[in-house]
C-alpha cells in the first residue's frame, strides 16, 4: 500500500484488493474523507451483488464522504455521475448517465457507480474502464482506450475525477435545483 495526498484527499493506493469498497469500509472509522484506489480488484461488485470485472488498467476506486445531508444523499448517484461524465469529456469522450448506476458511451457501458451509506460515512465506489482489457463476459462494455485508440494515464483520470467530484459537490450545495436541472441533458432516456 502506498499513501499520498491529492486534491484535499488522503489516497490509499493498492496493487490488488478484493474490493475497494471493503477496504474503505474498514478505514471509515479511522480516516476522515479519503480515497481507496486499486490497480486490480479480485471481487469488485456492482449493483445487486453482481460481479464487476476489475482487471489491471482501469480506474477502480472508492471515495468516502462525511456529512452528506439527506438531500445530497437522495441525488448522490446523479452528482457523482456528473463528475464522471465531466471527467470523460475532458479526455475527449462524450458519455451519458444511465439510471440506476451506469455511465454509457452510445450503447456501451464505460463505468459504474455503487453507493453505500454507513453510519460514519458514505462510500462511493466508482469503476471506469480506462485501458483495461474487456472480456466476453463484459457484454456491452467499452473503454477509453477502445474509444480513443490510445492509452490514458490512469493517474491523470483519477486527478481529474477527484477535482470534478469536489466541484459538483460544491455546485450541488450552492444551488441543488440549478445543478439538477443542468444534469437532465446528460440522462439517457
Brief summary of the model shown:
With 189 residues, this protein is α+β, with helices and mostly antiparallel strands.
Topology:
Blueprint: E1 2-6, E2 9-17, H1 20-27, E3 34-41, E4 59-65, H2 70-74, H3 76-90, E5 96-98, E6 102-105, E7 108-117, E8 122-128, H4 144-148, H5 154-174, H6 176-183
Parallel strand pairs: 2-3
Antiparallel strand pairs: 1-2, 3-4, 4-8, 5-6, 6-7, 7-8
What characteristics describe this protein?
189 residues, alpha+beta, BirA Bifunctional Protein, domain 2, 33% helix, globular
Characterise this structure.
With 189 residues, this protein is α+β, with helices and mostly antiparallel strands. The protein has one domain (2-186): Bira Bifunctional Protein, Domain 2 (BirA Bifunctional Protein, domain 2). Helix content is 33%, strand content 28%. It is built from six helices and eight strands; from the N terminus they run E-E-H-E-E-H-H-E-E-E-E-H-H-H. The protein has an eight-stranded mixed beta sheet, with helices on both faces. A hairpin with a 2-residue loop joins strand 6 (102-105) and strand 7 (108-117). Helix 3 crosses helix 5 (154-174) and helix 5 crosses helix 6. The chain is globular, with a radius of gyration of 15 Å.
CATH topology: BirA Bifunctional Protein, domain 2
The structure class reads: alpha+beta
What is the highest CATH level, the class?
Alpha Beta
Number of domains: 1
List low-pLDDT spans.
none
H/E series:
EEHEEHHEEEEHHH
Q: Helical amount among residues, as a percent range? A: 25-40%
**In percent, how much strand structure appears in the residues?**
25-35%
Bulk shape: globular
Amino acid at each position: 500500500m502506498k499513501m499520498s495526498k491529492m486534491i484535499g484527499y488522503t489516497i490509499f493506493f493498492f496493487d490488488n484488493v478484493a474490493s475497494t469498497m471493503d477496504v474503505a469500509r474498514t478505514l471509515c472509522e479511522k480516516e476522515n474523507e479519503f480515497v481507496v484506489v486499486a490497480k486490480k480488484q479480485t471481487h469488485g461488485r456492482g449493483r445487486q451483488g453482481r460481479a464487476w470485472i476489475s482487471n489491471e488498467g482501469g480506474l477502480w476506486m472508492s471515495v468516502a464522504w462525511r456529512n452528506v445531508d439527506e438531500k445530497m444523499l437522495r441525488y448522490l448517484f446523479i452528482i457523482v455521475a456528473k463528475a464522471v461524465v465531466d471527467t470523460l469529456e475532458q479526455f475527449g469522450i462524450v458519455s451519458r448517465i444511465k439510471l440506476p448506476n451506469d455511465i454509457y458511451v452510445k450503447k456501451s457501458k464505460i463505468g459504474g457507480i455503487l453507493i453505500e451509506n454507513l453510519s460514519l460515512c458514505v462510500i462511493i465506489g466508482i469503476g471506469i474502464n480506462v485501458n483495461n482489457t474487456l472480456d466476453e463476459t463484459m457484454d456491452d462494455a467499452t473503454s477509453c482506450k477502445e474509444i480513443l485508440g490510445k492509452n490514458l494515464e490512469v493517474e491523470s483520470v483519477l486527478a481529474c475525477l477527484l477535482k470534478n467530484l469536489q466541484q459538483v459537490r460544491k455546485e450541488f450545495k450552492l444551488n441543488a435545483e440549478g445543478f439538477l436541472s443542468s444534469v437532465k441533458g446528460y440522462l439517457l432516456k
